[in-house]
Amino acid sequence: MTLVQSLLSGDRLTLARLLTQIENDTSQGRAALMELFAHTGDAHLIGVTGAPGTGKSSLVNRIAYQYRHPTDEIEPKKVAIVAVDPTSPFSGGAVMGDRIRMRDLTGDPGVFIRSMASRGSLGGLAVATAGVVQAFDATGYEIILIETVGAGQAEVDIARLAHTTLVVEAPGLGDDIQAIKAGILEIADVLVINKCDRPGADQTERALRNMLQLAHPGPRVFQHHGAALEVDGAQPQNQETQIWLPTIQRTIATEGEGIPELVETIAAHRAHLKASGDLQRRERARLAVELESLLQTNMMARWRDSLANGFYDTVLAQLVAREISPHAAVEILLQGEKSK
Amino acid sequence: MTLVQSLLSGDRLTLARLLTQIENDTSQGRAALMELFAHTGDAHLIGVTGAPGTGKSSLVNRIAYQYRHPTDEIEPKKVAIVAVDPTSPFSGGAVMGDRIRMRDLTGDPGVFIRSMASRGSLGGLAVATAGVVQAFDATGYEIILIETVGAGQAEVDIARLAHTTLVVEAPGLGDDIQAIKAGILEIADVLVINKCDRPGADQTERALRNMLQLAHPGPRVFQHHGAALEVDGAQPQNQETQIWLPTIQRTIATEGEGIPELVETIAAHRAHLKASGDLQRRERARLAVELESLLQTNMMARWRDSLANGFYDTVLAQLVAREISPHAAVEILLQGEKSK
Question: Where do the CATH 3.40.50.300 domains begin and end in chain A?
C-alpha cells in the first residue's frame, strides 16, 4: 500500500506523520500533497477568529462535539481542528493547547486535532496551514475548523482559507475591542457572542447590530437586487437569495448553550454559498490566496539559492553603513540575479 | 529648495505629504527615501506592542509627552508616533486613533503623529512602516514610537523594526492572555504593567517575573560571562555588561504614573545597546528584515509584470478544477517566467 493509499484508507498514524512533513515542508510532504490535492474540495472549512479572552478554544471544542453528536437523525461528521497560533513564533505554546482541548474529544476516531505554531515567517505558516487543511480534506474530514488566536492581519489571511468565517466576541473585553471589531467585522459570516452569561451581553449585541447596520445598510443592499426580492416577498435573511447578512449568534460554550443553533447557522450559510454560486467564487479566491503565498515563498527560496556566495552580505553591509538605501539594495540584489 | 532640502529643514507640510507618498508607494516617495536614507540612523526607535485592552495608546501618548517635558535640565526631544493598525485591513480605523491621541500633544511642533492602516498585504504594511520611520529619522525626530495594535506575528515583525521593544500588559485581561505572553515575552526589552490601579496588578507582576525567570534563568546566563562579572561585583542588571534582562515597569498611563521611570529605563536600554555593541547588531538585523520585506514585495511585482496576459488566470482555473495541485501550479508559473 502506498502512502497516499494508506492515507485515503483513513490511517491516523500515517496522517499524523504526513502533517509533520507538511509543517516542515519536506519533499515527501510536497509530493504527497501533489497526489492528494485531486481528492480535496469536499470539506467545509470553517474559520474561527476573534480577540483573546473570547473563549474561542472552548467554542471550537463544542462545535466539534456537536458535529460528532448531532441532534435528529443526522449522521455524525468527521471533524478536524487546526489551531493556528501566530502569536507563538518562538516557543511551542501550541502543544499546551492540544492537551487542554483534548478532554471532551479524546478517543473519538472521528476527530483529529492539530495545533500549529508559526515557524519564522507568517507566509510559511499560511502555506503550512493550507497544506494541513488539504491533507484533512483529502482524507475524508468533512468539517475542518481553523482556529486562530489573536485578531490581526494574520487572522484575516487565515480566515480567507475558510468557506464560513465565525468571528467570536465576548461581553466586557475593554476599550480596544471596539477598534478590532471594525476591521474584523467585514470578514464575518457569523458573529458569535460567546460567554453570554457575563454582564454586558445585551450591550455587546446592540453594538454589533449597530455596526452591522452601518456595514450592511439593509435598504441599500436590497435596492441592488430589489426587483426579484420584492416578488418573492423580501426576506432579510434568505439562504436562496444572493445576499448573506452576517448573523449574530449567542453562545455559552462552556455550557454548550447556543451550539446546536450555531451549527445550524453554519449549515444555512453553506446552503446559501451553494445556491448563490458563492461557493465557487470563494473556492477561487481561497485558492488564489493560497497560490500567492506559495509563489512568494518559492520565489524567495529560488532567488536565494541563485545568489552568489557572500553577495547578499556585501550588499547588506553597504546598507548598514548607509552607503546605499534599501531600495537601491533591492535593485542591486535583483540585478545580480539577472546577470547570472 | 528641493523636496529633500525642505524636508531636512523641518517643514511639516512637506513631511506630511511625503508620508502619504510613502504609504502609497509612489515613485516620488521612493526617490525621496533613496535620498533621505543617508541621513537616517540617529533616532532611537521604540516599539510598543501588547494585547488589546492594555492601554497602549494612552501609554504612547504619555511617553511622548514625557520626552517633550523632561525632568531635570534635559533638552526636550523631537518625537514621532507611528501607530500601526494591522487589524483594520479594510476600513480606516486609524483616523479615529489620530483624533483621540491628539488631545495632549496638539500644537506641539516637536511632535508628529501618523496612523497607518494595513493596505491589503502585511508585507506592504511593513515596508510602508519602515519607510515612514526612515522619513522621521532623516528629518530629525530623535524618538520614534512605533505602536502596534494586537499581539500577533505582525506585531513581532514590526517590533523587529525597533531598538527597544516595550511589551504592555494589564491586570485581569482573561485567560488567553497567558498564551500570548509566552510568545511575545521573548521580544520584550521592557515589560510594562499598565493600569496598575486595577486589582490583580501584583499577581500579573508575579506571573511575569516567573515567566522571565523561566525564559532567562539568571545563574545560567551569568555563568557565561561569569569571570568578568565576579571581578566587578556581579550586578543582576547593569547597562555596562553584555546582558540585558527584561525590566518590569509598573505604570498608570492615564495618571502619568511610572512614566518618568519608564523613560529612564528606555534610556538605560539605549546606553546598554551602545556599550555592549548590541546597537550595531540590532541595526543590522533590523535592516536585514526591512530588506527582506522590500525584496519580497518587489520580486512579486516584477514577476507579475513579466507574466504573459491571461497566463495566471489559466493556471488558477486549472487549480480550481483540481487538475493541478498548488505546488504544480507554482512550478508552471515560475517556469513560465524563465522561458520568457
Answer: 40-278
Is there a contact between A157 and B118 if contact means CB atoms under 8 Å apart?
A: no
Q: What's the rounded Cα separation, in Å, for the pair B229 and A165?
A: 55
CATH architecture type of domain A40-278: 3-Layer(aba) Sandwich (3.40)
Percent of chain A with pLDDT strictly greater than 90: 40
8 Å CB contact between A70 and A76: yes
Model pLDDT for residues B108-120, shown as the tens digit of each residue: 889 998 888 655 5
Angle, alpha carbons B198-B201-B206 (nearest 5°) = 170
- The string of DSSP letters for B50-112 reads E-TTS-HHHHHHHHHHHHHS-STTPPP--EEEEEEETT-SSS-HHHHHHHHHHTTTTT-TTEE
Query: Quick check: A302 and B334 CB within 8 A?
Result: yes
Q: In chain B, which segments carry CATH 3.40.50.300?
A: 40-297
The DSSP 8-state label assigned to residue B257 in this structure reads B
ipTM for the complex?
Answer: 0.77
Residue of B nearest to A88 (CA): B183
At B117, list the grid cell. 492602516
Q: How far apart are CA A66 and CA A77, in angstroms?
A: 9
Assign a CATH topology to domain B40-297: Rossmann fold (3.40.50)
